[in-house]
Amino acid sequence: MYAVVRTGGKQYRVKPGDKFTVEKLSADGQKVNLEEVLLISEEGSEPMIGRPVIEGARVECELIAQAKSKKVMVFKFKRRKRYMRKKGHRQQLTMLKVRNISCGDKVWKAEGKK
Fold it and tell me: pTM, whole model, 2 decimals?
């Protein structure tokens, strides 16, 4: 069982119990609800596909940490003009753990994963 969610302009395939990293979310507290669920798929049944999102579906996540990624160096250079610029950038990230996926009256939880 998995779901595809959209956050920060990107799409992520998640299952209950998974840990994943997204672009920084302004989260107050320890729970984060992702409302933009694009697809929910169970084994042995037809997947539910949203147009563009599934109404009433959400993914409940637990906030693990706010962190920064590795530094990316940006270097601009123009030959024979004595022009060089060197900058570094560290993207701010949020680490999440999926607690459960719900759609209507159905709820899928992690079994035995901590």
Answer: 0.85
